[in-house]
Amino acid sequence: MTYVESTDVLVIGSGFGGAITAYHLAAGGAKVVVLERGPWLEADEFDHDFKLGSSYTRAFDFVVGDGMSILGGNCVGGGSVVYFATMPRAPRFVFERHGSIGRRMWPAAITRDTLDPWYDVVSEALPITPQRWEQIPYAGGLFAAACAHAGRTANPSPSAVDVSKCTNCNWMMAGCRFDAKRSLLLNYLPGALAHGAQIRPLHEVQRLTRHDDGSYRVHYRVVDDEDYRILHDEGAIDAKIVIVAAGSGATPVILQRSEADLGTMPHAVGRYFSGNGERLNTAIFNEDRVRDVLGLDRGDGVPYEAYQIGRGPTVASWDKLDGSLPEYERYSLEQLYFPPGLGTILAQVKDPSAASWFGVEKKEMLRTWKSWLTIFTMSEDDNEGVFGPPPETGNAHRMSQQMLGHGPLSYKPTKNTWRGWDLSDADVKDILERDGLATVTPWTNDLIGAYTVHPLASCRIGDDPATSALDDSHELRGHPGIFVTDGSAVPGALTVNPALTISALAERAVPGIVKALQARGVAVTYGAPSPTGQSFARRPVLNRS
């Protein structure tokens, strides 16, 4: 027999879109329950290794699709636990993009000017701070020096990292042991808990059903804490309002699976997916040329050899974020640390005679890994991703005990998308191969297709019901009381890291959700200050007896 509870608000997912709404609604007096598919990890559980069962495999969800793979967070705090905390605001031209639909993609109510106050709110809450050049690690300095040598500009990126606590260990992608990275574990989530919200890890939502009074029932299964392929007890929670923030690779799957019970979903649910136009290049630097051409020295006679030292991306070149350029020719270039594992597998050798991602040449390339620099492109794409029929459970067919799955996403890059990738590839080579500094090759697409760590737009907001699943209040068209506040609501590629924009949109959505709750008889108000970062309450112990 399925156990049924009730609450005012049920939030699916504890990343930016879920944590922010959970905090404000709980602080306003609503009863809030947050269901998170992944585990609840604390700072001392963030491991500095790649072993199966470490935080690296427990906190990630890597889903391989047809032509596109998605790497995302799978833990309490969602993507904020595994992100690199680079938090720029989207360029002004992004909000005027036409993209594949040939007209403005964003709702008329949202521009850079109208979103700026919400950017400010998030920047205060995390907080986000500029970085000074003297705080930039070696890899960022190398990229900046190479840009200057090529006559290009580079800038320190705004960051949600407390550099006074950072050890430059470069393990922040597996979670930060030192609480230097300002994940949601340090602000919105403890704030929500302090106001009575419940957070339940290892609860995977399967589908939604609707009651005659317009409220909803959310059906879940409990996930095994060691083998994510195993599902235990099932249960359900009734809620007056449901906020879906499971991530761009899972939110449309949940809604598609719910269609048999809820009725027809908007056409745009599971369509118009964007990989944020992301592309990666690996540069292998010649240490002698770094010394002779750029004049760099770490102080011990070594010019660089510091790929592994730092804290992810700290320096970006925004020269091509120029609104006067044609669409699909605008992109940012960001120095990035991608740790050994997937990054070393997908890095290609130069001019391979056979497969580009393994073999003798690749083994030789791996010997020089300390002299690598990874450059991350975020460009404009055509929103060409489409989700097929959902799997029986979850967002993917689980292929391993943790982390790896095969999902229903299909992605075939258009000529427009390839134009942005080709231009940015050429730009990276122009900057980094000058005067023999480095050899640059893009990551291979042969093994898993394209890839993104910033999936967007699979359930997007907009003014046109034919091409958007949500109205500008983030409410699902035709299904009042269901709101979507994660990256899937963003209309398209942003050309920069999207976490701050996702967060600002979630902040903007809260007043409308409060009004919807009030209309359903819930005594809730809006106006809580920025969360103060109280300590977490003790994690719940799951009882599977």
From TrEMBL:
Domain annotation FAD dependent oxidoreductase: ranges: 8-40
Domain Glucose-methanol-choline oxidoreductase N-terminal: 67-271
Entry keywords, A to Z: Cholesterol metabolism, FAD, Flavoprotein, Isomerase, Lipid metabolism, Oxidoreductase, Steroid metabolism, Sterol metabolism
EC number: 1.1.3.6, 5.3.3.1
Cofactors named for this entry: FAD
Ranges for domain Glucose-methanol-choline oxidoreductase C-terminal: 452-506
Presence of keyword Lipid metabolism: yes
Protein name (Swiss-Prot/TrEMBL): Cholesterol oxidase
Organism field: Dactylosporangium maewongense
Lineage of source species: Bacteria, Bacillati, Actinomycetota, Actinomycetes, Micromonosporales
